[in-house]
């Protein structure tokens, strides 16, 4: 199959490489030059996408991410790109379009359990934009669209968490957080090419919700720092469960984030 990646970052590259190794032809769209030899790379602005000179495309992955998490950044990257993408693909025999969205569209923020059967209820403007983007793809490709909603992607750096751990002596509340390792997300996305009758959407998370202050305390222990105190029992965040992913029998290779955090820390400080 000829597979097109619209947006080509860390996750796309991993998926593209796996699919190339399975014998597929890979093309990519991005705004900066790419050098991977296993794909044909096109430099284009997605808002002026032109695919007339590209061989027939069978399968599409859309993995775009805004430079900034502002309302304007989300609007431009996620929503304003839908119509140009749909228009550019019109002449192609697209069997499936897999759009990577986010779990931000689930606005629950009091420790609720959220799974694939939970309705999307955004509680901020960015979440609403993601919901509108998803709906726009479903409208354009009612049969071919599959939405992938990953939780927080981790696995390449622990710098932000280490910085938080080093600077925080207290945390305001009990905040539930969720994550998926970049390798597991990439494997799931490439696995979807073998799924004959996919669902309309999938949450992708490791099914291990964790309180954020406990993660920060773990880092503080590793770094020999005093442990932060929690200021209140108020519960925020949500507990995500990838029920459809589980039902498929897809198995994670990175079920324990602490093991992976340790691995990254040791890699950065081999001594």
From TrEMBL:
Record lineage: Bacteria, Pseudomonadati, Pseudomonadota, Gammaproteobacteria, Moraxellales
GO molecular function, one term: aldehyde dehydrogenase (NAD+) activity
SUPFAM superfamilies with a match to the protein in the record: NAD(P)-binding Rossmann-fold domains (SSF51735)
A cellular component term, taken from the record's GO annotations: cytoplasm
Native source species: Acinetobacter lwoffii
Top-rank lineage group of the source organism: Bacteria
InterPro entries tied to this protein: Epimerase_deHydtase, NAD(P)-bd_dom_sf, NAD(P)-dependent_oxidoreduct
Sequence ranges assigned to domain NAD-dependent epimerase/dehydratase in this UniProt record: 13-157
UniProt-listed Pfam families: Epimerase
The protein's name in its UniProt record: NAD(P)H-binding protein
């Amino acid at each position: 199959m000829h597979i097109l990646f619209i947006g080509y970052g860390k996750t796309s590259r991993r998926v593209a490489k796996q699919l190339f190794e399975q014998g597929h032809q890979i093309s990519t769209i991005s705004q900066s030059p790419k050098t991977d030899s296993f794909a044909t790379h096109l430099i284009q602005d997605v808002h002026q996408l032109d695919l007339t000179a590209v061989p027939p495309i069978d399968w599409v992955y859309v993995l775009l991410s805004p430079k900034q998490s502002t309302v304007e950044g989300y609007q431009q990257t996620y929503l304003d790109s839908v119509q140009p993408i749909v228009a550019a693909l019109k002449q192609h025999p697209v069997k499936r379009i897999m759009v990577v969205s986010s779990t931000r569209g689930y606005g629950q923020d009091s420790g609720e359990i959220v799974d694939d059967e939970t309705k999307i209820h955004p509680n901020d403007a960015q979440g609403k934009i993601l919901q509108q983007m998803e709906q726009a793809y479903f409208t354009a490709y009612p049969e071919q669209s599959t939405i992938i909603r990953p939780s927080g992607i981790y696995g390449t750096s622990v710098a932000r968490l280490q910085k938080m751990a080093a600077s925080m002596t207290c945390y305001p509340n009990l905040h539930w957080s969720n994550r998926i390792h970049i390798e597991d997300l990439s494997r799931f996305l490439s696995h979807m090419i073998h799924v004959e009758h996919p669902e309309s959407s999938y949450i992708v998370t490791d099914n291990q919700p964790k309180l954020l202050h406990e993660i920060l305390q773990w880092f503080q222990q590793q770094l020999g720092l005093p442990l932060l105190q929690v200021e209140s029992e108020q519960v925020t965040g949500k507990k995500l469960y990838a029920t459809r992913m589980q039902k498929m029998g897809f198995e994670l290779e990175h079920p324990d984030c602490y093991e992976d955090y340790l691995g990254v820390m040791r890699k950065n400080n081999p001594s």
